[in-house]
């Protein structure tokens, strides 16, 4: 494989990352186009391993150069990040490359941030592709500001590349399987009161569906945490289950942005530190479930979550632009640069809306005998019902608004016509529809900044 590969330049710096378990990633690289020397690799990140890697440093440099060939005539909007996916069968690798413009030494250059994985890991990586790309896109936005100010982009990129390498390594060993047996979940129990309080299970599943299937399960007992994780994953698609993670008995994982369901263990003191920034940057709002004290809390609905997320992103980039030195802004710093925006650190609220859909499902599913496959069939029918209701809601809104040409005016009529009078039922079906058509919440509820909290305040004033 090394034949024809140019030797690695001695100027290329390399960071070795210590990971627990098997790493599915060969390396990550940051390269740029030099107008005199052509493609040049600025930095390499590789997992530390006692065994020799499949690719030498020279071959990694060769593959990184490959992603920039042909980009000299790149024409893109300012700030755009192009995502390219290369499958090089002759080398046995896949390369995910994010192409962007940045300033190096005062000159505008075309740059590439690339992830290199073995081709055999393609089925494993594809479900996680969007998770990785969205996280890397935002770190590139921050890095471009750092480059503009003349600082090193490597430290900024390292703050996200290392966690992504840790994420992929953890998912390799502890991801939720695509097929879950109902016998491994709470839904198989004969007496729900023995292992999980009925009201707690109802509230957990209901909130889980209201937050688009995104939940974190926190506790001290890994078996109990993982049982709830598998139970919630029953309500996800097979692809979404591949983006979910069980907790590890030996030690706790950190919270990772972008996963659907993840189990997290408390430390020896019985506490768990939840990073505000990572939670806010999740694509959907999240449900927080504590199996030790049987509490369920949830983030605000999609339109409010998206609005707060975008405001925080802009404030974070603004704070970076105003920073006087590289040490002024840390990766976990809560941003207060915009005086008009003070982030609410208490992002989790009590579950406000009761539902009848999940309540009826749980009342009926435990009437069926366990172990005969009846409960699995009943669950499949329940999910099919939710999916059809979401499609019906989308079609209803399309007809009422002439496919978005007119504003949506009557939520009351929608609830009456679609038989969704209970707020919790509407929230569940709206969340299912949001995953089918992104932006639905913001469109239905009008101005995105008219948040659910403000709506409740207005209703209470009458």
TrEMBL record:
<dbReference type="Pfam" id="PF15019">
    <property type="entry name" value="C9orf72-like"/>
</dbReference>
<dbReference type="GO" id="GO:0005776">
    <property type="term" value="C:autophagosome"/>
</dbReference>
<dbReference type="GO" id="GO:0006914">
    <property type="term" value="P:autophagy"/>
</dbReference>
<dbReference type="GO" id="GO:0005768">
    <property type="term" value="C:endosome"/>
</dbReference>
<dbReference type="GO" id="GO:0005085">
    <property type="term" value="F:guanyl-nucleotide exchange factor activity"/>
</dbReference>
<protein>
    <recommendedName>
        <fullName>CI072 protein</fullName>
    </recommendedName>
</protein>
<dbReference type="GO" id="GO:0006897">
    <property type="term" value="P:endocytosis"/>
</dbReference>
<dbReference type="InterPro" id="IPR027819">
    <property type="entry name" value="C9orf72"/>
</dbReference>
